[in-house]
Amino acid sequence: MANPEHLAILQRGVEEWNQWRQDHHDIWPDLQAAQLQNAQLRIIDLSRTDLREADLTGAHLEGAVLNHADLQGAVLTKADFNSADCQHTIFRGAILSEADLRYAILTDADLTDTDLYGIQLTGAELTRTSFTNANFTNAYLHNVDLTHADTKGALLHNAYFTDPNAHPSPPSGQ
User: Fold this and answer.
1) 22: helix, coil or strand?
2) Residues sharing a CB contact under 8 Å with residue 166, sequence separation 6 or more, in sequence order
3) 65 to each of 5, 142, 147, 169, how far by Cα in Å?
4) Which of 52, 68, 118, 149 could form a disulfide with 138 if both were Cys (CB 3.0 to 4.6 A apart)?
5) Which residues pair with 75 in a beta bridge?
6) pLDDT tens sequence for the chain (174 residues)
7) How far apart are CA 6 and CA 51, in angstroms?
């Protein structure tokens, strides 16, 4: 259950939240199981935040900082993580169906057992990222290098990979 004080600060807006984080950098915020559907969280500092089991369906997290955040079991369907910094973030068992991860930094992130159905993953940094048993069905991956990522057991059914020199638009019907 989310800490009511932390949730109240977040509900006052990104600017106030970021100032509070700056003033209280030693606190690891608890937003566990918070209901944040369609939340406007652009350029927010959610580093070291407990977001386990949170519902961020349709949330706007463009440019957010989520370093060392814990999103285990979170619902992130259709969330926008465009250019988000998710280094060392734990997404284990999260649902990222149809999420937008274009240009996200996922270095050392854990996406083990994660549902990535239909995601948009363009130009993301994936060094040492774990995608073990992840579901990439119908995913669109443009200019993505999985060479140094762990993809053991990943399901890539109908995943669409494009050439880095091609125009980054998904095929028709996606």
Assistant:
1) helix
2) 142
3) 21, 23, 25, 26
4) 118
5) 55, 95
6) 999 999 999 999 999 999 999 999 999 999 999 999 999 999 999 999 999 999 999 999 999 999 999 999 999 999 999 999 999 999 999 999 999 999 999 999 999 999 999 998 888 888 889 999 999 999 998 888 888 889 999 998 999 988 666 555 555 555
7) 12
CATH at residue 149: 2.160.20
Residue 170: DSSP 8-state: P
Q: How many Cβ atoms from other residues are within 10 Å of residue 120's Cβ?
A: 21
Amino acid at residue number 131 = F
The two three-digit tokens of residue 141, written as one number? 């991956």
Between CA 92 and CA 119, with CA 131 as vertex, the angle to 5 degrees is 90
* Residue reference for tokens 């250019």: 83
Return the DSSP state at 124: -
Residue 61 CB neighbours (<10 A): 27
The residue range of the domain holding 75 is: 1-174
Structural domains in the chain (count)? 1
Please list the helix, strand and coil fractions of the chain in percent, rounded to the nearest 5, in that order. 10, 20, 70
